[in-house]
Amino acid sequence: MSAPPVGPKAVLKEVLKTKSGIAAFTLLIFIISLSLVVPIYAPYNIVKSWNNPEMWLSNPRCAAPVWIELFIGKKLPKNMVIESEEFHESCFIVTYGNFTIKKVYLDGDFNYKYDGFPSEFKIEIKANTKTNMRVDLKLIRPDGDEIFIIEEVLTANKSRIVLGSEGEIIHNAAENYVAEVLGSKPKVVVPQAVFFAVKDEGMNNPKTAKVLKGRYTLKIEATSLNPEDTVEVSMHIYGRVYGLIGTDAMRRDLLVGILWGAPIALAFGLTAAIISTFAQAILGVISGYLGGKVDEIIQRATEFMMVIPMLPIMILISFVYRLNIWTLLAVVIIFSIFGSTVKVVRSMVPQIKEEHYILAAISYGASRWRIMFRHIFPRVLPYTFSILALSVPGYIFLEAALSFLGLGDPVLPTWGKILGDAQNSGAAYHGYWWWILAPAMCIAITAIAFALLGYAFDKVVNPRLREM
């Protein structure tokens, strides 16, 4: 059995020769890569608006990842936006005596070629008028049918209308169209299905309706008594797939949250683990070398802190004071100054201080602090690497648990907070698996990476685990 390596560099070199060490570093490189992509894909000014609903209005709600199409064999709807500039405008001005009538016709064409119905749609009409403007809006389908949507008078005070597929106006338009086709009003109508469905008995039910593909035209006719009046219209059709990880109930791009969760998790876990492990190692060296009352005080304090349940205390503190991520980190470190590493290191010190080079240092007059930090601490440091690596997942789980309970940072998106939002919105019940799977996998991959790294360190520095 070979002797364990001495010194951090030698230990790290040996770790990279083990299979578990290689696997751990591969996973860590992946996680670090996510952290490096963050400034490119989602700068900090975007993540600051994570809880601002207006920031994400252009995204579909609870949309699946785009790559799901590879597994279901269908072309699912994606976002389609027909801006006002894309509408073809025709304008006529007719004068009758003292009256001047202005007619504006806007036609917006779009090709719907997907195998499913949109999740929702929104039509916005904006009139620039100083008097009154009458607006008629209808949708012309590929089969030639016209769905009359609205007839409204816009004024200077009420110059904007937003029609959503979940609103009463669109619902009534869909209901009237189904009644016209089938001869009777249906009990339940889903406008986003009716507007884009083939005419048959099941057209009002998304489960039985068939998609009518082809070119649709949104047609608006505006009438005004002022030749200077203008009108603008746009249509936003929301898809059912979006991005690499999809969206949540607030339309937020989950990829932004996942990417920002990586540096937050690494910063929180590594900072807490490094500071607490090194502090415990130093206390262990002091306790083992000085002995006496100092040893007694440190050991009793360690035993007291080890029996205190950290999670309930952190929940109580977070609930009362509503901490941000960095204040929470400081509190975690304070409660982790005394821990099991103190006892592990303390048990190693008595044997190390009896070695010849320690006795030689004492003989030439080296101070006790020099001996502890110059000669003993470097010897125990490699043995704390495995403890440090294994403690990182615990701190990441702690932050994720607090965020899951809604007690984490109120601003920054974290993996735990994303899981908490999924739980509160019933993602599992509604089948929004991507909302749960993505953050859960990131937490699991991070935990596995540091667990493998801790095992690799333990295998290198522990003589009982070293190979012949």
Condensed summary:
By secondary structure, the protein is of the alpha+beta class. It contains 16 helices and 9 strands. It folds into 2 domains: 8-56 and 249-461, MetI-like fold; 72-238, Jelly Rolls.
How would you describe what is shown here?
It contains 16 helices and nine strands. The protein is an alpha+beta fold. It folds into two domains: 8-56 and 249-461, Orthogonal Bundle (MetI-like fold), CATH 1.10.3720; 72-238, Jelly Rolls (Sandwich). A five-stranded antiparallel beta sheet has the order 2-3-8-5-6. It has a four-stranded antiparallel beta sheet with strand order 1-9-4-7. β5 and β6 (146-155) form a beta hairpin. α12 packs across α13 (368-404) and α13 (368-404) packs antiparallel against α16 (433-461). The termini are close together. The model has no long low-confidence stretch (mean pLDDT 88).
Summarize the topology.
Layout: H1 8-15, H2 19-41, H3 44-47, H4 69-72, E1 80-82, E2 88-96, E3 99-112, E4 120-128, E5 132-140, E6 146-155, E7 160-164, H5 168-182, H6 191-194, E8 214-224, E9 230-238, H7 254-290, H8 292-306, H9 310-321, H10 325-335, H11 340-352, H12 356-363, H13 368-404, H14 415-424, H15 427-430, H16 433-461
Antiparallel strand pairs: 1-9, 2-3, 3-8, 4-7, 4-9, 5-6, 5-8
Helix pairs in contact: 1-16, 2-7, 2-16, 7-8, 7-10, 7-11, 7-13, 7-16, 11-13, 12-13, 13-14, 13-16, 14-16
